[in-house]
Hints:
Elements: E1 42-50, H1 60-71, E2 79-85, H2 93-113, E3 121-125, H3 138-144, E4 146-154
Parallel strand pairs: 2-3
Antiparallel strand pairs: 1-4, 2-4
Amino acid sequence: NLDIYYADISELTEKIKPINSSIDTSSIIIKKEEEIVKKAKILDQKETIYFDFNSSALTEIQKKKINTLLSTHGHLSSIDVSLAGHCDNIGTNLYNDNLSTMRVNSVRKYLETLGIKSGQIKAEALGENRPAESNDEEIGRKKNRRVELIFSWQE
């Protein structure tokens, strides 16, 4: 008569209980079959692109920053990009939501011209909802006019 035991290998730290509680499990040896799984190493790199007041245009300096980052990682087909667009608090919420959308789209379109496919890009526009710095002074507002990029690729 065979009794069947099931265990999730990741949960082997917990005591395995038999289906039939009358069985003595003190001498049971669990044999784990080894499975070779090659896991790809995922690397993330964050970059921030800053924008002028009331602008969604990428400057040549910003484009060069993106180009330099991507040039060090060869295969664009293995890259995923997350974009988050932000604004300062000058203007209405609706206006800033639209401006952050335009900023994200500006970066998205540029990435696509470099060969990154639209399916590799995830984007969100956050308007003025998540400031990096206080909006009380101009220096803080400048840091809030941004798109944050997170590049993830497999090595």
